[in-house]
Design goal:
alpha+beta, Pseudouridine synthase, 14 helices, 22% strand
Length: 408
């Protein structure tokens, strides 16, 4: 399985501009583009929130506490980057405007309010707008950046799942595999033990304490920033079972680990096609997606359908493996099944386990819209600005990776 390391480039023949991103939150701004207009009436209070240095789930927790409602009364369309300024809509079932006016948090601001009849559900957005400054470059590098971005717009960007999905130790896909296999001991050992030399010494010490069975000491050593590790260690330090320790971790985070497992398989298959020059080439048995509607169909005659792919109207898809995922046909389907089999996770485990997933198909290409590139300078020095809109679920860091050719 591939995470986000060692992946191929669409524009490998064009040198990148280098540089760094996210020097400060203002350098990476994400603005959600809603899928529909709100009615202005209904039992769901809609809040347009700007956050910085917070996870989306941090906002959910805060809203749940502030409005005194359960987690599942809060709706949001997608997870947003912690190390950025992000603006997105949340819904609160039976939320009161007066209560919203009492909201106080320096890192979370309410920018607007509205109402609608329905809860915001995952995926209920058209996409996201990104406005990004790349630093430690000369502003003149904008010329080469535009050349790269123009090509990405013309051909579609590789729709890799970005490095954020795999965590700072690049192993959340392995943790997801352990959850699917029902191996809770291995899952906890991966999450809480096995120190790496690249980690801060305090984290390594916490992991060594866990491996020694001193769960109380490990809990004490983990800073509050590492909430999920602490959520697992709390029950362990009180003598609870492995299952209680795992279930103590926020459910959205556990779900994200399973998604990381699916993502690693997807990245591997997309990388194979990109290296072979077939990312946008249809093959018999492919499940293609229509970019305008999201509709899917099996490709029976690749030659007939290819002109639509050349116009970026449709693209081949890859598997985000799950029990109800639509299977590809022919040799394509066989390769996808092989990629799953090599992980040691069976289709039955995907369907029947405690962490089963419905699965879905994901486009191998992402349309990149409304591109902008310019050079400039501010109080931190010169930068190259890149702006663009991506469909929901796509990663801006993948586009930036093409521009910079810099691996984090």
């Amino acid at each position: 399985m591939l995470t986000a390391d060692g992946l191929a480039y669409l524009t490998a023949d064009v040198p990148g501009i280098g540089g760094t991103i996210k020097t400060r939150p203002e350098d990476f701004i994400v603005t959600e583009v809603p899928a529909y207009d709100f009615s202005g009436a209904g039992e769901h209070l809609y809040l347009y929130i700007e956050k910085r240095r917070r996870l989306t789930t941090d906002v959910v927790r805060y809203l749940s506490r502030h409005f005194k409602v359960p987690w599942d009364a809060i709706g949001y369309a997608g997870l947003k980057d912690k190390h950025a300024i992000t603006r997105q809509w949340f819904s609160v079932h039976f939320g009161k405007e007066a209560r919203a006016s009492e909201f106080e948090d320096d890192a979370i601001r309410i920018l607007a309010m509205d109402r609608h009849a329905n809860k915001i559900k995952r995926g209920h957005l058209r996409g996201n707008r990104f406005d990004i400054k790349i630093r430690e470059v000369d502003a003149s590098a904008a010329v080469r950046a535009k050349r790269i971005l123009d090509r990405v717009v013309a051909e579609g960007a590789p729709n890799f799942i970005g490095e954020q999905r795999f965590g700072y130790r690049k192993d959340t896909h392995l943790q997801g595999r352990s959850l699917l296999k029902g191996d809770l001991q291995e899952f906890l050992d991966q999450m809480l033990g096995r120190p790496q030399a690249s980690e801060p010494e305090n984290n390594q010490e916490a992991r060594r304490a866990y491996e020694a069975g001193d769960y109380a000491r490990a809990l004490e050593l983990w800073s509050t920033v590492h909430r999920f590790e602490r959520q697992a260690l709390g029950p362990l330090s009180r003598g609870a079972s492995l299952a209680h320790a795992v279930n103590g971790i926020d459910k959205p985070h556990r779900t994200l680990m399973v998604s990381a497992f699916q993502s690693a398989i997807f990245n591997e298959l997309l990388n194979e096609r990109l290296v072979a020059g077939r990312m946008g080439k249809l093959e018999v048995g492919d499940i293609a997606v229509k970019h305008d509607t999201g509709g899917q169909f099996e490709v029976r005659d690749a030659e007939v359908e290819q002109p639509r792919a050349d116009r970026m109207e449709i693209s081949p898809t890859g598997p985000m493996w799950g029990a109800e995922m639509r299977r590809a046909g022919g040799a394509i389907g066989e390769r996808e099944a092989e990629a799953l089999a090599t992980t040691g996770v069976s289709e039955r485990e995907l369907a029947d386990g405690d962490y089963s997933s419905y699965g879905t198909r994901r486009s191998f290409r992402m349309p990149v819209r409304e591109p902008q590139v310019s050079g400039g300078a501010d109080d931190l020095g010169p930068y190259v600005y890149a702006g663009f809109e991506l469909p929901r679920g796509s990663f801006a860091t993948v586009v930036l990776r093409e521009i910079t050719k810099a691996e984090s």
